[in-house]
Structure formats: C-alpha cells, structure tokens
Write a structure and sequence with these properties.
Distance between the termini: 18 Å
Structural class: alpha+beta
Largest sheet: 4 strands, mixed
Strand order of the largest sheet: 1-2-4-3
Strand content: 25-35%
Bound molecules: manganese (II) ion
Length: 196
C-alpha cells in the first residue's frame, strides 16, 4: 500500500491550522492547539490509533475554545479523507469498546462516504481544563462531516468527566485504526455501489 499520509492547512480570521496524519504510523505525535487538555485528547487518539499526527493550531482562544476545537476537527477530517484516497482494500468498518476505570465508551466507524454523527455523552461539568465539554461533540461532528464518515460515539457508563472525554478520543482512535486497516482479501473498494 502506498504512503497513507494526509496533510491539510486552513487559515481563516479565527484559526490557522496546519495538520498532518499518517495512518500507518506508530502513535508519534506533536500537537499544539493552545489548549493543553485538547492536546492530551488528540495525543490519546493518535497514540492508541497508531497514527503519526502533527498539529499546529493557532486559534482565537481569547474568544473561547469553540473555533479552535471545531476547526481542528474539520482539518483532521480532511486530512484523514486525503490519506484514505479511494479507500480501496481497507476494512471500512471498525469499532471499539474502551474502558477507563469506571467509564466505558463505545465507538463505531463506517468510512462510508456518508457523514453521520450519533453522539451520546452526558458530561456533568462545563469545562475540563481549557476545553468546554460541549465542544467534544462539535469536534466529532466536524470530523464526521469533513471525512464523510459515519461515526457513533456513546458513553455506556461514566462518572469522571476527564475519563469520559479521554475514553471517547481513545475509542475513536482504536475504531478508526480498525476501519482504515488493510484487508488483503479485498482488492477493490468494499461497497456494493463500487465507491465509498
Ligand atoms: Mn488523562
């Protein structure tokens, strides 16, 4: 398989982002979004998905974290889509159930070309570090539409808000790793329609 790396740069009045992801990496990452807790989440995603990830994000954090987190999701989704190319010879579906102490998170992914987010997570605090908890959903929503993936995320059991957020990001990494993995028995695009 060719080098599955995707890069994306995006600049608006609100954010300036440069991001690169290699789907066949080993989890090495260099992430700076200006929000330490969000960096910690993206590190968990990359590390446990075995993706090499570089992300340099300069956002209008003096406003709040909204644009920074949402736009990072948009750019990450675009980079994933670009790394995947025509999606020939990959497993397409992936899912993972990730425990973190009292928390149990589920993530299921279909790299279907049809964006959809089903997100069920109830946080009980408004903020974790510098990250507004309502932005966790916005991040995954942005990834789902910009990568055109069907993404289901669910907290089946929770308690500690840090664990809940982290379990979602790690479960997403594991599920996406499974979905992007090569399937040697399948040479073409795995769809009855012939394209994804
Ligand atoms: Mn943590």
């Amino acid at each position: 398989m060719m080098d599955r790396t995707g890069s994306c740069k995006r600049k608006t009045k609100e954010t300036e982002i440069s991001l690169k992801i290699c789907l066949d990496g080993n989890g090495r990452n260099r992430i700076d979004t200006g929000i330490a807790f969000f960096d910690h989440m993206l590190d968990g995603f990359a590390r446990h998905g075995l993706f090499d990830l570089e992300a340099e994000v300069k956002g209008d954090l003096d406003v709040d974290c909204h644009h920074t987190v949402e736009d990072t999701g948009i750019v990450l989704g675009q980079a994933i889509a670009s790394a995947l190319g025509d999606k020939a010879g990959i497993k397409r579906y992936g899912s993972f159930m990730l425990p973190m102490d009292e928390t149990l998170a589920l993530c299921a992914v279909d790299l279907s070309g049809r964006p959809y987010l089903n997100y069920q997570a109830e946080f009980t605090v408004e903020k974790i570090g510098g990250l507004d908890t309502e932005m966790v959903k916005e991040f995954f929503y942005a990834v789902s539409y910009s990568a055109a993936m069907n993404l289901h995320l669910k907290i089946l059991d929770g308690g500690n808000n840090h664990h809940m957020a982290e379990a979602l990001f790690k479960a997403f990494g594991k599920a996406l790793d499974a979905a992007t993995m090569e399937e040697p028995r399948m040479k073409e695009v795995w769809s009855t329609k012939g394209s994804l």
